[in-house]
Design goal:
Layout: E1 3-7, E2 10-12, E3 18-25, E4 34-39, E5 45-51, E6 58-60, E7 68-73, E8 78-83, E9 92-99, E10 111-114, E11 118-122
Parallel strand pairs: 2-11
Antiparallel strand pairs: 1-3, 3-8, 4-5, 4-9, 5-6, 7-8, 9-10, 9-11
């Protein structure tokens, strides 16, 4: 079964850290770039970070401001997003997604596979 399963979300105080994980199955994970996207209540989809299939190159949205790191373990079919210095505005559902082409899109049509999402809430 082709799927992505995220984990690692939760409630954290401002300034705290979380690491999200996404385990892929049913396809050749090492042959695809992967993206973390997020959607806050009442807001549109935002691409957060994207990594090439080798794990050697990454793109980050400007709002990340060097607080997050995307990386991958192709041997274990897992994508990660390490998030530090979290802000209240980072509150959203975070999804890992497989882009139809590299390009960090902000529409669901830019992705052909996504997980169920994991909630990240940043609040004091």
């Amino acid at each position: 079964q082709v799927q992505l399963v995220e984990s690692g979300g939760g409630l954290v105080q401002p300034g705290g850290s979380l690491t999200l994980s996404c385990t892929a199955s049913g396809f050749d994970f090492s042959n695809y770039p992967m993206t973390w996207v997020r959607q806050a209540p009442g807001k549109g989809l935002e691409a957060v970070a994207e990594i090439n299939k080798y794990g050697s190159s990454a793109w980050y949205n400007a709002f990340v401001d060097r607080r997050f790191a995307i990386y991958r373990d192709n041997a274990n079919n897992t994508l990660y997003l390490q998030m530090n210095s979290l802000r209240t505005e980072d509150t959203a559902v975070y999804y890992c997604a497989r882009p139809t082409a590299p390009g960090n899109g902000n529409h669901w049509s830019d992705y052909d596979l996504r997980g169920q999402g994991t909630q990240v809430t940043v609040s004091s």
